[in-house]
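I am writing to request your help with a piece of structural work I have in hand. Thank you for your consideration; the sequence and its tokens are set out here:
=====
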Amino acid sequence: MATEAAIKIGEQATSRTHGIKMFKWSLLSPLIVLALFLMPIFLLQIYFSLHSWTIYLSTWWAAEYVGLEMFQDVLTDKRFYWALARSFLFAGVSTVGCFVFGFALALLMYRPFRGQAFFYILFLLPMLTVPIVLTYAADMLLYRQGPINGILSFITGLDMRFTWLANPNYAIYTIILLEIWNWTPFAFIIMLAGLSSLPYEPVEAARILGANRFQIFWEIQVPLLRPVIFLALILRFLEAMAEFPKTWGLLQGGPGSATETIPIYLYIVTWQAFDVSKGAAMSYIIMVIMIVIILAAIRILRREKSALDALYQAPAPGEGE
């Protein structure tokens, strides 16, 4: 009898191991296929970054070998650094804005109430809007004599003719506001899921001890939500760094170069100036920067997960006595 039970346990362990292996391969296989598909593109990009070629020259396979000269050209380009700074400004401010509004909406929505489904749909609509549609709508709304200035004029009693898109001092902040409106639902979904998954016992214990709502939120919910908060911030920041459609559709990096972020500048260099070699070198430099950011983000997420696991595993006061 004991032998049969041991055999059954061994079969279950083998089956579980096989299932885990199959699951891993089901995740890795598409990535391997994608990597093999993209490998020729990466190799061609390396070739272009080490050779000086534009479409105005002869065939690309006859391009002159220049070594790391293209990388040096990018790293000494002041316009590249300004574009990088604007990208960090855009990503940083829009990420904080999306998170603040998304978290606030999640706090309002995570307890059931009548008509909740309607508000779910309403709050998710901005994220479902096609970016190019959003840019055309924003262009009409933000026109100098458009509806937004008309509403502000009605509220303030003044003749508002604010140049939302034409003023280089404010244009990037206009794009940031559009980005916040567009992607607040993303932070809302993540934070709502985090709030819904919180254990009820710590909150109930805090209420019994007389804690008010703010104390429960700040001292119990926020510490438990730290991994979710960092996940929302990191994912939103990475996506914002790659923002292209709204900025290009509205201003194409203008007025002047006021909204010229890294994706915009890379597009201009490669597809308008047709400096393919410089564009290839720039893309690899950007890739290295993003890899560093992603590795730092993974380290932060692991640290937060370990801290949360330690919090859950810590013995209650008096339990070890």
